[in-house]
From TrEMBL:
Principal location: cytoplasm
Gene3D superfamilies for this protein: 3.30.540.30
Cofactor(s) in the UniProt record: Zn(2+)
Any GO BP annotation: proteolysis
UniProt-listed PANTHER family: DIPEPTIDYL PEPTIDASE 3, DIPEPTIDYL PEPTIDASE III-RELATED
Protein name in the entry: dipeptidyl-peptidase III
Cellular location(s): Cytoplasm
Root EC class: hydrolase
The protein's Enzyme Commission number: 3.4.14.4
Keyword entries, A-Z: Aminopeptidase, Cytoplasm, Hydrolase, Metal-binding, Metalloprotease, Protease, Zinc
Family in the record: Belongs to the peptidase M49 family.
Spans traversing the lipid bilayer: none
């Protein structure tokens, strides 16, 4: 592994946190559980969309890893010796699925397994199917040359949001000005430069390969096409239609219908409407949110990746958070900055504690504030959520032990969950 820079080696000896999802799901009614299950299936299907947004090879790596993990006897995986080649491969698989790709969700650095290509091939050599899938991605797994080592615009990094590889930041800025003038929302798009045109590709089930001309940049026509990730989104919508049969109320029904329209047509306006219904769905038992949400891995910071979570509300902890929100008008007056820095009208957010059942994303945060659309945040509102079982997981608890005085680390670790509930 001497040829791989240390910064690109997969983290080792990390902690695995148990979110105890079955424990929290056990409190749901059969109808609520069916709704949650269908939303989980929808977001799992959307993971294929997300893989394609991380790197060209991520979907191939997923095909290899999923086949390896399902076709290898479970006892062999469980008995992997510490720091053995198999152990390092399993760590790579954990990191890959946590980050939904082979680049860090927070940090944008490519990571490769701590075993050599030869050791990796040795592990799977008895399985022809898995070996074939590995052959299709092994060179890309280990390639950290030049811009491949991190995400970004060429020559400092690589990205699948803008193609081909030598696509420049100035091109992206110029084309986005054309799209803005034409009134085209860009959250669920990618841009491809062809020899004779620029293609702005919209993620949608509907396919329009010819596209609509919206302007010209750098002597080339700019077309908006539809149909990127069409097959994966069909599976997403299939499960959303099943979830629609088990919604808790009319607001949730309208919410899911708008989400289906968004994935079917690619209309961002439909997702804005979905977000409006979502904000108005106050204190649901099963809380879920899906779409092209965060722009962290777009080097321009505009285009968003597929993301979704399914959770159930922690009713006891949410009571304390509701009391906090009810006091927000008083608290705001005490903050040490002029009132001019506040919005003209403050709409108190919904604030709940959630226990995550499933999440498709590039890492698990401990809290979320969404939606990101200003027109909804200003005119309708937004939701703050604390992901309680993420925050209280062993992995998160122990990750902060290093900053504590040694004399209190054991006490903190033992009572972390109880202290968090009182905070």
């Amino acid at each position: 592994m001497k040829s791989i820079p240390p910064a690109n080696l997969c983290t080792t000896d990390f902690l695995i946190g148990d979110l105890k999802a079955p424990q929290y799901a056990a409190g749901l009614t059969p109808k609520e559980l069916q709704y949650a299950a269908n939303m989980i299936l929808a977001q799992n299907a959307g993971a294929l969309v997300l893989f394609d947004q991380v790197s060209k090879e991520s979907k191939k790596i997923h095909a290899f890893l999923s086949a390896f993990l399902t076709e290898t006897p479970i006892e062999k995986l469980r008995n992997a010796e510490q720091n053995s080649p198999l152990f390092y491969l399993l760590e790579f698989a954990c990191a890959f699925y946590y980050n939904s790709g082979n680049y860090l969700g927070f940090g944008d650095t490519k990571f490769v397994p701590r075993l050599t290509k030869e050791q990796l091939r040795e592990i799977v050599k008895e399985n022809a199917h898995v070996s074939k899938l590995l052959d299709e991605c092994i060179e890309d797994i280990y390639d950290v040359s030049g811009p491949k080592s991190q995400l970004g615009f060429n020559p400092d990094g690589c990205t699948v949001y803008y193609q081909p590889d030598d696509f420049t930041q100035s091109e992206a800025e110029g084309i986005d000005q054309v799209l803005k003038a034409a009134g085209v929302r860009i959250e669920n798009t990618a841009i491809i430069r062809h020899a004779d045109k620029y293609e702005v590709s919209v993620a949608s089930i509907e396919v329009d390969e010819k596209g609509q001309k919206v302007g010209t940049y750098n002597g080339k026509d700019v077309y908006v096409t539809k149909g990127r990730s069409s097959e994966a989104l069909k599976k997403v919508v299939k499960h959303l239609n099943e979830a629609l049969k088990n919604v808790a109320n009319d607001t949730q029904a309208e919410m899911i219908k708008c989400l289906i329209e968004h994935f079917t047509t690619g209309s961002v306006a439909a997702h804005v409407k979905y977000s409006e219904h979502w904000v108005k769905d106050v204190d649901p038992v099963v809380e879920t949110h899906t779409g092209f949400i965060e722009n962290y891995r777009d080097p321009k910071g505009c285009r968003c990746e597929f993301e979704g979570f399914v959770s159930c509300v922690d009713k006891n902890e949410s009571v304390a958070l509701h009391n906090f929100v009810d006091s927000s008008a008083t608290i705001l007056k005490l903050l040490p900055y002029p009132k001019e820095y506040e919005r003209a009208t403050f709409n108190p957010p919904s604030y709940n504690a959630l226990n995550i059942l499933q999440m498709t994303s590039t890492g698990y945060p401990i809290g979320i504030n969404i939606p990101n659309y200003d027109e909804i945040r200003l005119n309708v509102g937004f939701k703050n959520v604390t992901l309680s079982n993420v925050l209280s997981s062993v992995a998160v608890q122990k990750s902060v032990l290093g900053i504590l005085d040694p004399s209190i680390r054991d006490v903190f670790s033992e009572y972390c969950e109880q202290v968090e509930s009182l905070a």
